[in-house]
């Protein structure tokens, strides 16, 4: 069986399990379950701390895992990113008390508190900054107030926690992170390829909608220019002479504007429907 790690809690957990359900895989029914077997798909899911997932995959104990890009890079293990999953996006930033530093060049001689010391140490070294890195597990924003450090480096989604602690974000992002699928090098069996295709199908299905509409034949080329589809749209003649029906996949973010443009061309009966799964 394919052995796959899934986050057991936190911002990654719910979205990861929802995505796996959309891909047709059985998921646990209760949060206390540590392992779920999906015999129909020949997969075992192991629910682990997000920070540990890359370690298990890199050690070859598990074949694939869903974790954060920041956690993969921080672990330093021999695992590789195969697919960005499009959720749990965040940036990794430095923050200080207002006025205490203008940028990272001012960090020389300072102490930086973080839960991601490997990422921070590498970033400092790449920029020629001599600073001390102190490891803290969680709630690093309090480190400045308590005098443990002059700078914190942390994952930022909205920045609310840092602002509430009286800190401001400075400098360019250290990195950008999101949920990713990781694998141990050499994992390329049919089950792993199928798993990857299913997740890719879920991502595409979420990014596109199916659009159907009717238009006059003489306006078809202009309409198709708006809805080229992935290869080409499906075009069928209607019972009313001179009219055709068109079906094509269009980007979900652009669907409303495309509908407006088609209507302006004279298209009618313009409909969009969600796509639940696909293979490209």
Automatic annotation (TrEMBL):
SUPFAM superfamilies: GlnB-like (SSF54913), Periplasmic binding protein-like II (SSF53850). One of its GO terms (molecular function) is ATP phosphoribosyltransferase activity. Feedback inhibited by histidine. It comes from the Bacteria. Residues 205-276 form the Histidine biosynthesis HisG C-terminal domain. The keyword Glycosyltransferase applies. It is found in: Cytoplasm. Gene3D superfamilies: 3.30.70.120, Periplasmic binding protein-like II. It catalyses: 1-(5-phospho-beta-D-ribosyl)-ATP + diphosphate = 5-phospho-alpha-D-ribose 1-diphosphate + ATP. Residues 49-200 form the ATP phosphoribosyltransferase catalytic domain. Catalyzes the condensation of ATP and 5-phosphoribose 1-diphosphate to form N'-(5'-phosphoribosyl)-ATP (PR-ATP). Has a crucial role in the pathway because the rate of histidine biosynthesis seems to be controlled primarily by regulation of HisG enzymatic activity. This is ATP phosphoribosyltransferase. It comes from Streptomyces flavotricini. The lineage of its organism: Bacteria, Bacillati, Actinomycetota, Actinomycetes, Kitasatosporales.
């Amino acid at each position: 069986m394919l052995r796959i790690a899934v986050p057991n809690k936190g911002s990654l957990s719910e979205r990861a399990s929802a995505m796996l359900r959309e891909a047709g895989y059985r998921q646990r029914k209760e949060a206390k379950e540590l392992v779920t077997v999906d015999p129909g798909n020949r997969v075992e899911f192991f629910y682990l701390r997000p920070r540990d997932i890359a370690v298990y995959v890199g050690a070859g104990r598990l074949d694939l895992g869903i974790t954060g890009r920041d956690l993969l890079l921080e672990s330093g293990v021999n695992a590789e990113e195969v697919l960005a999953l499009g959720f749990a996006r965040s940036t990794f930033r430095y923050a200080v008390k207002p006025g205490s530093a203008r940028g990272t060049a001012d960090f020389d001689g300072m102490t930086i508190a973080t839960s991601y010391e490997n990422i921070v140490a590498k970033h400092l070294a790449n920029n020629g900054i001599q600073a001390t890195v102190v490891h803290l597990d969680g709630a690093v924003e309090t480190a400045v107030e308590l005098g443990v450090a002059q700078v914190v480096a942390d994952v930022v989604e909205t920045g609310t926690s840092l602002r509430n602690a009286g800190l401001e974000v400075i400098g360019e992002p250290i990195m950008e992170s999101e949920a990713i699928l990781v694998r141990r090098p050499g994992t390329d069996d049919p089950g792993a390829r199928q798993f990857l295709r299913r997740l890719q199908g879920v991502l595409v299905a979420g990014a596109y909608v199916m659009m159907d509409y009717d238009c006059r034949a003489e306006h078809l080329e202009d309409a198709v220019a708006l809805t080229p589809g992935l290869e080409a749209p499906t075009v069928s003649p209607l019972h009313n002479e001179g009219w055709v029906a068109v079906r094509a996949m269009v980007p979900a973010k652009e669907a409303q504007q495309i509908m407006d443009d088609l209507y302006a061309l004279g298209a009618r009966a313009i409909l969009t429907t969600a796509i639940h799964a696909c293979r490209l």
